[in-house]
Specification:
- By secondary structure, the protein is of the alpha+beta class.
- It has a single domain, classed as Nucleoside Triphosphate Pyrophosphohydrolase (Alpha-Beta Complex).
- The chain has three helices and six strands; from the N terminus they run βββαβββαα.
- Helix 2 runs antiparallel to helix 3.
- The radius of gyration is 16 Å and the shape is globular.
Length: about 170
């Protein structure tokens, strides 16, 4: 079985009087309407990707967030790891064991959705979603858990003061 090591970020920002987090819609995973059927719901996920050689997992999280959302962030803490297996739809349907480390990051600049054209093959769009709703809105159970952990972390760390609220 192949192994993959990835890293991602839960980027939070205080705005409009509350906490929001960055989420992405992977390319080709948006809502679809099929003739004679109900529309399918699109995939909403956290930015993440493979750890490159010579890169630490937290550096990967910051890079993936920048590439997939268009925003810059600073590291707050590691949230945890998600472990799962999947079967590749390429490379002969090989089974893969994957570990994704997630980090809590705080927004420091940039514009959500300002994604480079080369990245559009991976990400259709990025948006801010209310952190309080993220555990319901995200598609994948492990990522919903990371959103819930983020909310708990913020609630228990009043020192994570919100920057200027736009």
């Amino acid at each position: 079985m192949a192994r993959e090591i990835s890293s991602g970020g839960v980027v939070v920002r205080h705005m409009r009087g509350g906490w929001y987090m960055a989420a992405i819609e992977p390319a080709g995973k948006g809502p679809r309407q099929r003739p004679g059927r109900r529309a399918t719901k699109g995939v909403l996920a956290l930015p993440k990707g493979l750890v490159d050689r010579g890169e630490t997992p937290d550096q990967t999280a910051l890079r993936e967030v920048r590439e997939e959302t268009g925003v810059e962030a600073t590291l707050v803490t590691k949230l945890g790891d998600i472990k799962y297996t999947y079967v590749r739809s390429w490379a002969g349907g090989e089974k893969v064991f994957k570990i994704v480390s997630f980090y809590l990051l705080q927004y420091s600049g940039g514009e959500i959705g300002s994604i480079a054209p080369a990245m559009r093959k991976e990400v259709s769009r990025a948006e801010w979603i209310p952190l309080a709703d993220a555990a319901k809105l995200l598609t994948y159970p492990g990522e919903r858990d990371m959103a819930a952990q983020t909310l708990a972390y913020i609630d228990s760390h009043p020192d994570l003061a919100p920057p200027k609220d736009p």
